[in-house]
């Protein structure tokens, strides 16, 4: 039994000989003025991750001037060149080839062969390699995605058990048996005035049997289970996230130390009434706008959007009610028996 369990575990686990695990390393934000504190390898190209190098290149391209005219304050940045039509696009390139004939090993090929390929759908995710190649944000996203998939396993098992219970017991439902009993010959009142005929209760037999599959005593348990599942999922993910943050040295991780956009700085430089203020994080002098110019428009815009969506939701509810009333009335006035006899079902379906 233990051998079978171990083989199942190995079927999901990554091959450590092909993708060896990363050793935990302590890191901090790089500062070239304190370069003596960092263990710089002989191959300096491996000191920064691929994502960090791409961010540095993007930082330079977005701020590099391309005009000698000192009065042209907007003549800088790759985005300006793209908007003017000199370039069609600018995006970071992959490093290394993923093709089978590629002899030089690289992280991109390893991820393609042992993670992104369809044949490895059952394997665990190499989160350390994903973080190394795509960055901490993308790595954390795939960590959440994998954890969410794991947590769906017990929910799917319980849901399957509830469905099987309904499938096994749908013939033993007393209300359905009463509805399907043809010997009683229970006649029901017409479903509309004047035109709808009387009908037998056993005509709803199929509907009551099928409803039993999804509406039985076990579905109450399933709904209670899912409320606890949602809470457990959030709490367990917090623990998993804290573990990953500790392993990747992201305990004090800031989103990104993004400096002000160069387009924003250029526009502020043209306004002589803008005063500068020290950034509490970077300690650099940056343009500062008063509260009524920055926050007030945002608050007014957000409140307007929320009010519009609230009115839209109320209008949608009112529209559904009005639609149902209008369609039911129109179907009842129809000359086709199929329409006015099934007016309620047709309206609900549409």
From TrEMBL:
Which domain of life does the UniProt lineage start with? Eukaryota
Per the database record, which ranges form the Anoctamin transmembrane domain?
A: 130-337
For the Anoctamin dimerisation domain, which residue ranges apply? 4-127
Q: Which residues cross the membrane?
A: 141-168, 218-237, 299-332
Q: Which InterPro entries match?
A: Anoct_dimer, Anoctamin, Anoctamin_TM
Q: What is its main location?
A: membrane
A family per Pfam:
Anoctamin
UniProt keyword annotations, A-Z: Cell membrane, Glycoprotein, Membrane, Transmembrane, Transmembrane helix
Subcellular location per UniProt equals: Cell membrane; Membrane
Q: What residue stretch is flagged as signal peptide? A: none
GO cellular component annotations of the record = plasma membrane
Q: How does it sit in the membrane?
A: Multi-pass membrane protein
List the Gene Ontology MF annotations in alphabetical order: chloride channel activity; protein dimerization activity
Family listed: Belongs to the anoctamin family.
User: Sorted alphabetically, which PANTHER family does this protein's record hold?
Assistant: ANOCTAMIN
Q: What is this protein called?
A: Anoctamin
Protein species of origin: Owenia fusiformis
Per the UniProt record, the lineage of the source organism begins with: Eukaryota, Metazoa, Spiralia, Lophotrochozoa, Annelida
């Amino acid at each position: 039994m233990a051998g079978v369990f171990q083989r199942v575990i190995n079927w999901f686990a990554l091959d450590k000989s092909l993708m060896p695990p990363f050793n935990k390393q302590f890191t901090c934000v790089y500062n070239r003025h304190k370069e003596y504190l960092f263990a710089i390898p002989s191959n300096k190209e491996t000191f920064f991750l691929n994502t960090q190098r791409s961010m540095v290149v993007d930082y330079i391209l977005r701020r590099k001037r391309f005009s000698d005219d000192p009065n042209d304050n907007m003549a800088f940045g790759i985005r300006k060149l793209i908007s003017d039509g000199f370039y069609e696009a600018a995006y970071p390139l992959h490093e290394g080839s993923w093709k089978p004939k590629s002899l030089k090993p690289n992280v991109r090929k390893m991820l393609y062969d042992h993670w992104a390929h369809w044949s490895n759908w059952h394997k665990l995710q190499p989160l350390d390699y994903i973080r190394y190649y795509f960055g901490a944000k993308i790595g954390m996203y795939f960590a959440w995605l994998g954890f969410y998939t794991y947590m769906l396993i017990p929910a799917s098992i319980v849901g399957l058990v509830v469905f099987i219970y309904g499938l096994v017991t749908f013939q033993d439902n007393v209300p359905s048996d009463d509805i399907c009993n043809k010997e009683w010959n229970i006649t029901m009142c017409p479903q509309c005035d004047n035109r709808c005929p009387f009908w037998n209760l056993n005509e709803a037999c199929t509907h009551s049997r099928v409803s039993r599959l999804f509406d039985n005593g076990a579905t109450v348990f399933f709904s209670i289970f899912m409320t606890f599942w949602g809470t457990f999922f959030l709490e367990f993910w917090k623990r998993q996230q804290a573990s990953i943050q500790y392993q990747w040295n992201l305990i004090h991780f800031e989103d990104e130390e993004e400096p002000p956009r160069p387009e924003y700085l250029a526009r502020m430089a043209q306004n002589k009434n803008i005063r500068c203020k020290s950034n509490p994080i970077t300690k650099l002098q940056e343009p500062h706008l008063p509260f009524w110019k920055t926050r007030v428009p945002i608050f007014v815009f957000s409140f307007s959007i929320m009010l519009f969506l609230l009115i839209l939701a109320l209008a949608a509810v009112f529209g559904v009610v009005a639609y149902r009333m209008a369609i039911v009335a129109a179907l009842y006035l129809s000359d086709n028996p199929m329409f006015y006899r099934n007016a309620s079902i047709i309206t609900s379906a549409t």
